[in-house]
Amino acid sequence: MGLRGRKTVVVTHKNADPDAIASAFTITRFLRMQKSHTLLIFPQGVNEAGKNMLSNLNIAYEKYILVMKYRHVLDDESVLIMIDTNNPENLSEASKLFSSTNTVIVIDHHRPHPLLFMRRDSRVYPLIIPTYTSCSELVYDLLNDVYPINSLEATALLAGIVYDTRRFLTIMPRTFEIVSELLRKGGDYRRAISMITREMDYSEKMARLKAAQRMKIFTCKSYIIAISHVGAFEGSVARGIIELGADLAIVYSIRKNMFRVTLRSTGRFYRETGISIGRDLIPYLSRVLNASGGGHDNAGSLEGYRVGGDLEEILEKTVCKLLAEGNS
Ligand SMILES: [Mn+2]
């Protein structure tokens, strides 16, 4: 399909990560070289790791898409290009574009989502290859023969690959070939690493260290549980406690008449106990504390109004009780 001269909208999943940013950045530059009028959207902005990358690459993008605002920009010939996701719901408010565009190209490495493929949508051209460990590698293979990838794009794609492979923990056979080719095209590996590495500032480091100082450690069914409290940076603090060696980290903060509890666990904790933070711990604690929250298997948080009694003691007892009962 010729994209030359056509209006294109490149959109990533919401809270774009470095892999999505690198892929969208390179595709956008390719399209602009094709004389395509291209708009780049990162719905709801980018995630923590992506922030450095944005300032480093100096990318102009839209955070929110007001379909009304761009209605005059888009026409029947316009093409929507979805990057690093194939689930239209992942586009946040930009999903309106998905339903209103006549041609949608999907460049992604995640497993095909039923939402996209249940109804055979003739508007959709999928380039989805789940064997790719990053979208950046897929973009490289798609463009390499037709577009002279320059050193800046090579550096961005390197950052995307390093991020999505979790520093080469999971790779595909071609990963190192692609990395080597990107380096030969002038990719700057050190700059790529610095793009996705976030330096903690003074207050975050202080929050982590103070939380470590105040930590209470106990063992339930041979799992090490650490509980502490801070005024801010609960997520970072909980992650830090897991890095120190806890199986489950519970960090709470109290602000005025509200409390907030943030939890993190190791992959092993979830696998062995079958206890998911989002599915089991948060609802259980929410009932006891009359709070509400949510999360994933290894991370989550809840919030509520302060109750009588010692919050730390209640958390400890409740978590131990759930562990003792097992996830049945
Ligand atoms: Mn990805």
Task: Walk me through this protein's architecture.
- With 328 residues, this protein is of the alpha/beta class.
- The protein folds into 2 domains: 7-196, Alpha-Beta Complex (inorganic pyrophosphatase (n-terminal core)), CATH 3.90.1640; 204-325, DHHA2 domain (Diaminopimelate Epimerase, Chain A, domain 1, Roll).
- It is built from 14 helices and 11 strands.
- The chain has a 6-stranded mixed sheet with strand order 6-7-8-9-11-10, with helices on both faces. The chain has a 5-stranded parallel sheet with strand order 2-1-3-4-5, with helices on one face.
- Strand 10 (292-295) and strand 11 form a beta hairpin.
- Helix 7 (151-164) packs antiparallel against helix 8 (175-184).
- It is elongated, with a radius of gyration of 23 Å.
- The model has no long low-confidence stretch (mean pLDDT 90).
